[in-house]
């Protein structure tokens, strides 16, 4: 295992020290592993909390700041944070208008946030929850834990963050969050496995001439192992299931071409070119796009595509100012 | 020789033995979780049980309700993932079921374990055959109850439970997972043991060991 | 070789299609492989041109936009672009106040930009040049082609871009560029080699228990191959030669912890934490910082540290608004 | 049998042969550049010479000045890196030295090659022993001149040049580079052939082959 780390058990602790040192606009609670805005938002506005296992950076800590999240809870690598972390964060960021929990649909995350919601509710904080589940790689969702929450989480945190900043109430913010989640679809692939630091070796072995289609963001094997193909074919294998799942024509879309962590930007742009061409051919109108590493899987090489069916309201919220370490414009 | 009642310190030995076992089998549990999950189950259980025993090292509560509440809360707040709330709930419910006692008879232990399993089901909604820890615990507790009904001591019942849980764990191998992250793999989840079934069969084996030794 | 590409010969061409599709604020000349701002800056302002081999993304194309570059020429992977590309870009971006060429110190880049400068000069465009050479890994620079230009190039493009935007003349802009270059030092390391697409295999073999200290950004072996160490020790091996080369105390510094392309953000933050601690211990006051992939080496895992000795003027220019795909704030 | 004069089409064959050779040895040149450079020399030379021959495919100029200007400009505008300006300048200067001739005698060819090498030195400031293409070309052209002085034909002189250039190339192996990106490696550049020395020894070998065959 070749990583820029000290003791594999200390990766999260050590990385949070770096986050704190790099970003004066953030405040890090090292005991509870929470990243806050240094300057809380105004009283009376809905606050946004997200969190999840570490190893997906910049998600979620990189999206804490004006226009997005108020705080993010960091779990161990690929392990949901715990209810006490979430409860603490919820209490701290509540400005009296309630807190929206943004939860990716994994059994662990859902259960821990559920417990946190109960605890915070008992303490008088109004909590609402949106569970993202946009991964079309998961089929037969009635026979599974449901679809995984992946790329749409990034777009949702931006859009809903802008709505909260505007001063909308908890019901409106939550309704918008659900609408965004329902309007987005993602599909991912891997060229290589990642290596969980504490495990010390790759989660799965992938021969040089094979790739995994339909992976999530936890280094899990995907739905199919298929022969390695060119960018053009890979793009088809990602875009086709997305378009098959939802009709994106007739509305402006926001598209994200996301890197899994170890694929360089030149490859991500190349993939985006392929994806944009396919979407164009299918009559999908791309209004906004994002190319880069936004929701990663440690040192996995690969990428994912997210398409979100937007409307004028969503585009306006998308364009609203945001100032986080991972996404920033207008500020 | 096993005895008819189980004092609390025997259950503390159980927890200590389980801590040692998950640390020892950490790589194995992670291996299982690598095949159909996200390669953290070994680390999760080792971290959680280490935290549990560190907490108890600072002082062991005198009654079962306090002991297991402490164990459950420590797991809930130190593990995360799916196993944190599930194992945490298991112990929290055990404590609630047992009440402020300092010694279990067989029936009380069976009831506490059963309450724990019910808590797991309440949290995780697992059903038989979903390929989860339920599939080791449910047959294990079934065997515990059956052994008691036939007059066995708690230690004998625990040994029966462990054996049944191990069979339940092994039975998960060919199944397609329907709960937890293994379910995302669909057909590809078949052919591998469920990591949570493995760690919970181990939990009952440690119980048998703790009650069986004297 | 596992990459998100089609034909290895087409990587640059295909990636530029993606850049164009992703960024309406940029215009791509596919024939000459130049990335321009879609909206040129005002007449009478100095224009900035950079360029170099591809494979270092976001450098340079990702730094084209308001507040930084006016255009970037893209060469083949790790190969300097050609004089005709540079000449064309120089002509197009000149707003009558002359053009500064920002050149990283590599024989190829220097010679090609030199030829381009001659050609553009002959056509009546005033051209000035700054050659960055901040890599302290290159020792005995009198016996070599001089130090390599690496991380400071990113900081320079930002700072000098802001000065050009202010309306300073070519002599002032050039003087500032030289000052920034002279005030910055960098040092890099690699955990793995990269793979040049056209070569099809890793440039060098690095055993699992070894790392290269003192690499540049072209997948070249470094100065020393040493046993793999933890982040703490790696940080020492990067920071020490930088501090040894220039006294950074008594002035505010801008620090960049840069990823080589395949190292995930969680590791880069962890490294930044280590570097920040060492700088603090050495009495270096960090005023601004940047953590992420800014000047990369394809899919190499590793990182580099750049420290720039700043002053109030440089910090003011650093904080000025910038709107590029790779660096953005205030706009 | 070699002849005393070299018509232009024979030099076009030289260029065509060199294109084929660098394509054939592309992996080898890249291998050399991987060891002490950035693994692109094979791709650079193959791209450049392919562009050169594609350009000439659309029409071959009738005089040496136009021919080599075209070759040089094509290399300058298609290669990039260090080798683009260096090889480009080499051919540009060859053309300027030769003038509007359609046939070379030995002396004119020697002068043109020498002018090309001077151009490389003017651009790159390489000195003997820096471990660059200079270290193959300089002994190569020295041998060319020496052979002519002893009455050899251009073909015989080219053969001597190629052999001397190859010896020059091989001599670069133990040296520590002092120019180009290999110099960044310091001592670690020793023990490897210089890629540019290899490609330029090949250039003279192809010249010998083109003039030698008839
Ligand atoms: N809904 C559920 N009900 C019961 N057990 C579950 C459920 N979901 C997952 N599990 C158990 O949790 C185990 C995985 O635990 P762990 O790896 O620690 O957490 P995570 O899946 O969050 O990484 C599975 O092997 C399975 O036995
Ligand atoms: N200053 C110089 N003078 C002469 N030849 C040089 C000089 N610098 C580099 N070279 C030659 O160029 C070769 C490398 O060419 P190439 O790999 O195509 O370009 P780059 O080094 O830009 O990647 C070296 O092997 C060396 O022979
Ligand atoms: Mg997990
Ligand atoms: Mg797991
Ligand atoms: Mg090169
Ligand atoms: Mg090279």
UniProtKB/TrEMBL annotation, chains A, C:
<feature type="domain" description="DhaK">
    <location>
        <begin position="7"/>
        <end position="329"/>
    </location>
</feature>
<dbReference type="InterPro" id="IPR012736">
    <property type="entry name" value="DhaK_1"/>
</dbReference>
<protein>
    <submittedName>
        <fullName>Dihydroxyacetone kinase subunit DhaK</fullName>
        <ecNumber>2.7.1.121</ecNumber>
    </submittedName>
</protein>
<dbReference type="InterPro" id="IPR004006">
    <property type="entry name" value="DhaK_dom"/>
</dbReference>
<dbReference type="InterPro" id="IPR050861">
    <property type="entry name" value="Dihydroxyacetone_Kinase"/>
</dbReference>
<dbReference type="Pfam" id="PF02733">
    <property type="entry name" value="Dak1"/>
</dbReference>
<keyword id="KW-0418">Kinase</keyword>
<keyword id="KW-0808">Transferase</keyword>
<dbReference type="GO" id="GO:0047324">
    <property type="term" value="F:phosphoenolpyruvate-glycerone phosphotransferase activity"/>
</dbReference>
Automatic annotation (TrEMBL), chains B, D:
<feature type="domain" description="DhaL">
    <location>
        <begin position="9"/>
        <end position="209"/>
    </location>
</feature>
<dbReference type="GO" id="GO:0047324">
    <property type="term" value="F:phosphoenolpyruvate-glycerone phosphotransferase activity"/>
</dbReference>
<dbReference type="InterPro" id="IPR036117">
    <property type="entry name" value="DhaL_dom_sf"/>
</dbReference>
<dbReference type="InterPro" id="IPR012737">
    <property type="entry name" value="DhaK_L_YcgS"/>
</dbReference>
<keyword id="KW-0808">Transferase</keyword>
<protein>
    <submittedName>
        <fullName>Dihydroxyacetone kinase subunit DhaL</fullName>
        <ecNumber>2.7.1.121</ecNumber>
    </submittedName>
</protein>
<dbReference type="InterPro" id="IPR050861">
    <property type="entry name" value="Dihydroxyacetone_Kinase"/>
</dbReference>
<dbReference type="Pfam" id="PF02734">
    <property type="entry name" value="Dak2"/>
</dbReference>
<keyword id="KW-0418">Kinase</keyword>
<dbReference type="InterPro" id="IPR004007">
    <property type="entry name" value="DhaL_dom"/>
</dbReference>
């Amino acid at each position: 295992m070749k990583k820029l780390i000290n003791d594999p058990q200390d990766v999260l602790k050590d990385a949070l020290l770096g986050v704190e040192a790099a970003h004066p606009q953030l405040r890090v609670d090292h005991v509870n592993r929470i990243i806050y805005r240094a300057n809380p938002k105004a009283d009376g506005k809905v606050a946004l909390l997200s969190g999840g296992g570490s190893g997906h950076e910049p998600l979620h800590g990189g999206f804490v700041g004006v226009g997005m999240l108020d705080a993010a809870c960091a779990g161990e690598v690929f392990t949901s944070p715990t209810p006490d972390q979430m409860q603490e964060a919820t209490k701290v960021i509540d400005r009296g208008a309630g807190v929206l929990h943004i939860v990716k649909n994994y059994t662990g995350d859902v259960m821990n946030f559920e417990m946190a919601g109960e605890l915070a509710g008992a303490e008088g904080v109004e909590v609402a929850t949106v569970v993202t589940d946009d991964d079309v790689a998961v089929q037969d969702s009635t026979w599974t834990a449901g679809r995984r929450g992946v790329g749409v989480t990034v777009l949702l945190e931006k859009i809903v963050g802008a709505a909260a900043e505007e001063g909308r109430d908890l019901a409106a913010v939550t309704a918008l969050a659900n609408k965004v989640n329902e309007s987005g679809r993602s599909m991912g692939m891997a060229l290589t496995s990642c290596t969980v630091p504490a495990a010390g070796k790759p989660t799965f072995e992938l021969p040089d001439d094979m790739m995994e289609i339909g992976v999530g963001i936890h280094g899990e094997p995907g739905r199919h192992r298929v022969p390695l193909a060119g960018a053009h074919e890979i793009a088809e294998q990602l875009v086709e299931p997305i378009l098959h799942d939802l009709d994106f024509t007739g509305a402006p879309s926001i598209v994200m071409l996301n890197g899994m962590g170890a694929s360089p930007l030149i490859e991500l742009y190349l993939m985006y070119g392929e994806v944009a061409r396919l979407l164009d051919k299918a009559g999908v109108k791309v209004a906004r796009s994002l190319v880069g590493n936004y929701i990663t899987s440690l040192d996995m090489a690969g990428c994912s595509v997210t398409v979100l069916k937007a409307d004028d309201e969503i585009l306006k919220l998308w364009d609203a100012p945001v100032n986080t370490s991972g996404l920033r414009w207008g500020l | 020789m096993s005895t008819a009642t189980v004092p609390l310190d025997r259950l503390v030995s159980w927890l200590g033995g389980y801590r040692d076992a998950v640390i020892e089998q950490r790589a194995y549990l992670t291996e299982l979780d690598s095949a159909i999950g996200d390669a953290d189950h070994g680390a999760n259980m080792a971290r959680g049980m280490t935290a549990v025993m560190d907490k108890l090292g600072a002082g062991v509560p005198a009654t079962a309700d306090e002991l297991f509440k402490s164990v459950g809360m420590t797991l809930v707040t130190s593990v995360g993932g799916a196993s944190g709330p599930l194992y945490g709930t298991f112990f929290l419910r055990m404590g609630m079921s047992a009440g402020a006692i300092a010694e279990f008879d067989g029936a009380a232990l069976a009831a506490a374990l059963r309450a724990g399993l019910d808590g797991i089901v309440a949290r995780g909604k697992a059903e038989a055959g979903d390929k989860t820890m339920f599939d080791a615990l449910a047959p294990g507790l079934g065997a515990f109850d059956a052994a008691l009904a036939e007059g066995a001591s708690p230690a004998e019942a625990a040994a029966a439970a462990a054996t049944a849980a191990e069979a339940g764990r092994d039975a998960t191998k060919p199944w397609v997972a329907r709960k937890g992250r293994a379910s995302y793999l669909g057909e590809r989840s078949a052919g591998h043991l469920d990591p949570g079934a493995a760690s919970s069969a181990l939990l009952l084996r440690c119980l048998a060991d703790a009650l069986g030794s004297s």
